[in-house]
Amino acid sequence: MNNEYLEKYNKGTHIIGRLASAIALFLLVGAPFLIGKVIGGMPDLSAVAKGFISVGLVWTISSVVEFLVYTPMLGAGGGYLAFITGNLINMKIPCAMNAKEMAGTRSGTTENEIISTLSIAASSLTTIVVLALGVLLLTPLQPILQSETLQPAFANVVPALFGAMAYQYFRKNLKLAMAPLIIMSVLFILVPALISQASIMILPSGAITIALAYMIYKKNGTIEKAEK
Predict the structure, then answer these.
(1) CA 26: distance to chain centroid?
(2) Each residue's pLDDT tens digit in the chain (228 positions)?
(3) pTM of this prediction?
(4) Which of 93, 110, 136 is the last residue of a domain?
(5) Dist CA 128 CA 131 (whole Å)
(6) For residue 14, what are the CA distances in angstroms to 2, 53, 73, 134, 177?
(7) In this structure, are 94 and 197 located in the same domain?
(8) If 0-12 CB within 10 Å is exposed, 13-18 middle and 19+ buried, where does residue 120 land?
C-alpha cells in the first residue's frame, strides 16, 4: 500500500512539477514581450540573439550542471520547487542540506525527498514574505540599509553562508576536503577569469573529490580510515 501511494505521489509530483515549470518558463520568456506590447516598445530580437550567444551559452551549460548536481540531492518535489522559485545556491540548497543534516536522512531515499520538499517549500514561503515586507519597508529602512557601518556585512553574506555550510561537511573528512579546496583556490588565483564560471567548475572539483575518495576507499577499505 505504501509503495502504491508513493508511486501515485511521484507521478502527481512530476505532473504538477512539469506543468508549473512550463508555466513559469512561459511567464519568464513572455514578460518582456508583454511589457513591450503595453508600452509600445517591443524587444529587438537581433539584440536578444546576440546577447544570448554571448552569455546564454555559458549559462545553459551552468544550468545543466546545476540540474545534474542538485536534483539527486533534492529529489523530484524539492527539485521542481527549487528550480521554479530560484536562488538555489544562496537559499534553497543550504536550507535543504541543513534540514537533511538535522533529520539525519540520506540522499536518494524517500525520507530525504520529503524533508527536502518541506524545507524548500518553507524557504520559498519565507522568501516571499521577506520580499513582501522588504518592498513595503524599503523606503523607511533605506537610511539604515545604506549605512556605511552595515556595508561590510552585506558584502560578506554569501561567503559567510557558504563557509558555515561547507564546514559541516569539511570537518567530516578534512583530508579529503582540503585537496579540491586547495586546487580550486590556486586555480582561481592564477586564472581570475574562472571566478565568474564557478558553477561550471563544480564538475572538475567534484570529479577530483570523487577520484580521491575512490582512491582512499581502495587503499583503506573505508573513507573514514583516512582520518585516523
Answers:
(1) 22
(2) 467 777 888 888 899 999 999 999 898 888 888 888 888 877 778 887 877 777 777 677 777 878 888 888 888 888 898 888 888 877 888 888 888 888 888 877 888 888 989 999 998 899 889 889 888 888 888 888 778 887 888 777 777 777 777 777 777 777 788 888 888 889 889 988 887 777 677 778 888 888 888 888 787 766 554 454
(3) 0.61
(4) 136
(5) 5
(6) 18, 31, 17, 33, 35
(7) no
(8) buried
Give the total residue count for the chain.
228
Retrieve residue 118's grid coordinates. 518541506
> Do both 131 and 176 map to the same domain?
no
Residues 128 and 179 placed together within one structural domain of the fold? no
- The DSSP symbol for 87 reads -
Q: How far is CA 33 from the centre of its chain?
A: 28
Residue 58 falls within a domain, yes or no?
yes
Helices (H), the chain: 2-39, 45-51, 57-85, 93-103, 110-145, 151-155, 157-170, 174-190, 202-220
Amino acid symbol at 185:
S
